[in-house]
Write a structure and sequence with these properties.
Helix content: over 70%
Number of strands: 0
Number of domains: 1
Strand content: under 5%
Number of helices: 5
Order of helices and strands: HHHHH
Distance between the termini: 23 Å
Shape: globular
Length: 66
């Protein structure tokens, strides 16, 4: 999934990355290499999503764990 620089930090892209990593569709290293992102940034997105009190994100994470 190649995206433009503008889309790279959009919430939709971040949510897709988090969901993909949590469902083991891709690894953090794969995302980092493909999009030129630091692994720590990707892990930060995952941590933020895991700690989020946003019901929509919680539902997404719950679905990805089933």
């Amino acid at each position: 999934m190649l995206v433009s620089r503008e889309e790279l930090f959009s919430q939709a892209f971040i949510d897709a990355v988090v969901c993909s990593v949590l469902t083991k569709a891709v690894s953090v290293d794969d995302v980092s290499t493909t999009h030129g992102l630091a692994p720590g940034m990707v892990w930060g997105w995952i941590a933020e999503a895991m700690l989020s009190s946003d019901p929509e994100k919680s539902a997404m994470l719950e679905e990805s764990n089933t």
